[in-house]
Design a protein that fits this description.
Blueprint (H helix, E strand, L loop, with lengths): L2 E6 L6 H13 L4 E6 L7 H12 L5 E3 L8 E2 L2 H11 L11 H7 L3 H8 L2 H20 L4 H10 L8 H11 L11 H12 L6 H8 L9 H12 L8 H9 L1 H21 L1
Parallel strand pairs: 1-2, 1-4, 2-3
Helix pairs in contact: 6-7, 6-11, 7-10, 8-9, 9-10, 10-11, 11-13, 12-13
The structure holds fe (ii) ion (FE2) (2 copies).
Length: 269
């Protein structure tokens, strides 16, 4: 019964890799398996070590180290491909013990955003997140939570109407009566909850209400405002930005009114 180290990027470790490791240990009669992350990765080695520790916590014969043992082996490359799929938003494919952490820490939120949205939409979402964070800081709100809401708010925007319809028919059919342009704000919280494992109710509600503007918390107001005033939209929102830093509700009322007027002008013109 020897010890053995197994390396992969573990960026992050998937449930499939974990199962492979457990099978390998059994098949080769190994006493203890040490998991070692490779140097290259999206997340830092320190972050991946932290995640690995959580992933192996339930297993007595698995441990984690930065250094491989002599004669260490690698996880087959095709199996490591699964890590990319997790980074693209399928957190439900990550090792069971780290799913909650992935959904909370946001380490792969931006890789998920880039995988699920077109570049322009991703740039918009990053810009919304930045505005959310800046204004949240001014008000002493949770600025990380605000940033996350911004990054994730349009995560299902690239879906076809058919994809949206299929999900809403099951989870929230009354929304199908509304304009299909608004559907992404209803499909996003469902996707974020069921696939990415996001549980933060405040974030989910802010996203749910970001197109209709029917929210009532400071985070709801903030996301609604940031979505409309972020700089990549290309119009001068200096006044609205300043007002948002002074009085969120007043800025929300103003931006909401401006959006309504814009819609009316477009419909009439
Ligand atoms: Fe949106
Ligand atoms: Fe948006």
């Amino acid at each position: 019964m020897k010890n053995c180290s197994i390396s992969a990027a573990f960026d992050p470790i998937t449930q499939e890799e974990l199962a492979w490791i457990l099978d390998y240990r059994k098949a080769h009669g190994i006493r203890e398996v040490v998991l070692v992350p490779l140097q290259q990765g999206i997340a830092s080695v320190a972050d991946r070590l932290k995640l690995l520790k959580k992933a192996v916590a339930p297993y007595r014969h698995l441990s984690v180290s930065e250094r491989p043992l002599k004669d260490g082996i690698f996880i087959p490359e095709e199996l490591q491909e699964g890590e990319r799929i997790v980074r693209q938003g399928r957190y439900d494919k990550s090792a069971r013990g780290i799913r909650k952490e992935l959904a909370e820490c946001g380490i792969y939120f931006e890789t998920s955003l880039d995988a699920l949205c077109k570049p322009r939409r991703a740039a918009h979402s990053r810009s919304v997140a930045k505005v959310c964070r800046e204004i949240a800081e001014v008000h002493g709100m949770d600025s990380e939570q605000a940033w996350k809401a911004g990054i994730l708010h349009d995560i299902t925007k690239a879906w076809s109407d058919e994809q949206g319809r299929q999900l809403l028919e099951v989870y929230d059919p009354s929304r199908l009566e509304l304009d299909a342009k608004t559907w992404h704000s209803f499909t996003a919280p469902i996707f974020l909850k069921t696939v990415m494992g996001i549980q933060d109710k405040k974030i989910l509600q802010a996203i749910l209400t970001h197109t209709l503007g029917d929210g009532c918390t400071d985070l709801d107001y903030l996301l609604y405002i940031a979505d409309k005033i972020e700089p990549t939209r290309g119009y001068d929102a200096a006044y609205e930005t300043q007002l948002a830093k002074e009085d969120l509700k007043a800025a929300f009322d103003l931006v909401f009114k401006e959006a309504e007027e814009y819609r009316e002008r477009r419909n009439n013109g």
